[in-house]
Design goal:
This protein is mainly beta. The protein has 3 helices and 21 strands.
Length: 410
């Protein structure tokens, strides 16, 4: 019995040394992987799911002390007792639809189908007259109501040129329906007197977007991923100043584009913190003005420059399980006023008057964000997100369904 016990102890020491040697090799491989210049944590994670953010590995539960250091004899061999390997998990940030998560792996091409619906409702009551006591108004009321529905189908492409550098583009097709109601109330006994309803629709290509993104950090040692990018918008959609209009200047057809070039540098920070991912984005949109030189109603518009727009967003994505995650956030854009140089036309000989410089009021666009992601395969994830307007200038609701597919391009 003493000899058998000694043999068992010797076998246990042998197995312990083998486990220590195996652990040393694993530690060396992990150190080499984290310190290598040609392989990044982002590139490794991108092979699992397009746009996903890898979470730090959670430590497995500790085995019972009596089993942790024991090797059980089985026949002529030894059966080791241990924990199964932990799979790397990811979180999809569904509300970051314009940024697309972390950088696409080098040689990977992601094609994404986007389907978007946006609805805007605005009701304004304008009173022009004299208020005598608090409840008596003498003058004219104008009740203005506008409703806008926009459907967008777009194809988005992202190509990873290196493990840190990515190019992207977006090609949208837009259907738009605008309905506005102007009801000047001339007689209290006839509240709908003078009602004017002018529906306008449009079907055309929207403004094409393209840009580049560069990953600054790898997110090691608890630091966030920092991703810098530049997005540009080309005025490929139908021009709002080029659509057909009536004699009063009212549009007879909707526009699917803004009509101006725009460039937006941005910086995104993504911080994994199992089981959640924190994210924040800041950006600044620079819009470029242009000469219009067109008569709209009794006005000759010479030059228009849309205001710039700083923006920011922040939120959190939470992994419910290895394939499902939800996202919450808030985004805000401050759009400065549009500057216009125009001249009023004379009612007698239609000659232009002196130049007038005007600037519209700025817009505050606040939106609450909510999103859900479901990974159907290692190369496909369904993302659905909703934006709800938090300010009067923002759209009432906007919802987007994104389905990306990833391929090996080279």
């Amino acid at each position: 019995m003493r000899k058998a016990l000694a043999d068992e102890r010797a076998e246990l020491v042998k197995q312990q040394r083998a486990l220590e040697a195996q652990q040393a090799r694993i530690d060396a491989l992990e150190a080499r992987l984290n310190g290598g210049s040609n392989v990044s944590a982002t590139a490794t994670a991108s092979t699992l799911s397009p746009g996903g953010v890898p979470l730090p590995l959670s430590p497995p539960p500790a085995p019972p002390r009596a089993v942790a250091q024991t090797a059980l004899p089985l026949g002529n061999g030894v059966q080791s007792v241990g924990a199964a390997p932990v799979e790397q998990r990811q979180v999809q940030v569904a509300v970051l639809s314009e940024q697309g998560g972390i950088i696409t792996k080098a040689g990977r091409l992601t094609l994404e189908g986007d389907f978007e619906y946006a609805r805007s409702d605005r009701n304004n009551v304008v009173f022009r007259g004299v208020q005598i006591p608090e409840a008596v108004l003498i003058g004219v009321f104008d009740i203005n109501q506008s409703r806008q529905d926009v459907l967008t189908a777009a194809i988005v492409a992202r190509l990873g040129l290196t493990s840190r550098f990515e190019i992207n583009g977006r090609l949208p097709f837009i259907y738009r329906s605008d309905k506005s109601v102007l009801a000047p109330v001339a007689n209290p006994m006839s509240p709908n007197a003078g009602q004017i309803d002018s529906p306008v629709t449009a079907r055309d290509l929207g403004d094409v977007e393209f840009g580049v993104r560069y990953q600054i950090t790898n997110g090691r040692n608890g630091s966030p991923y920092l991703i810098a990018g530049v997005q540009a918008v080309a005025p490929t959609g139908s021009d709002p100043f080029g659509v057909a209009r009536d004699a009063l200047g009212n549009a007879l057809r909707g526009a699917t584009g803004a009509g101006f070039w725009g460039v937006t540098p941005n910086l995104t920070a993504i911080l994994p913190s199992d089981p959640a991912v924190l994210f924040a984005t800041i950006g600044y949109t620079r819009n470029f003005g242009r000469m219009i030189d067109r008569q709209i109603g009794p006005t000759l518009i010479d030059y228009v420059r849309p205001g710039d727009a700083p923006s920011g967003s922040a939120g959190i994505a939470i992994a419910l399980n290895p394939i499902t995650s939800i996202s919450f956030g808030y985004a805000h854009t401050w759009a400065f006023g549009t500057k216009t140089r125009l001249r009023m036309l004379s009612t007698t000989d239609n000659s232009p008057g002196p130049t007038i410089d005007t600037e519209s009021r700025d817009l505050q666009l606040g939106r609450f964000l909510f999103g859900v992601s479901y990974r159907t395969s290692p190369s496909t994830t369904i993302n659905w997100n909703v934006e709800v307007g938090a300010t009067n200038d923002a759209s009432s609701v906007r919802t987007t369904l994104r389905i990306p597919f990833t391929f090996d391009a080279f």
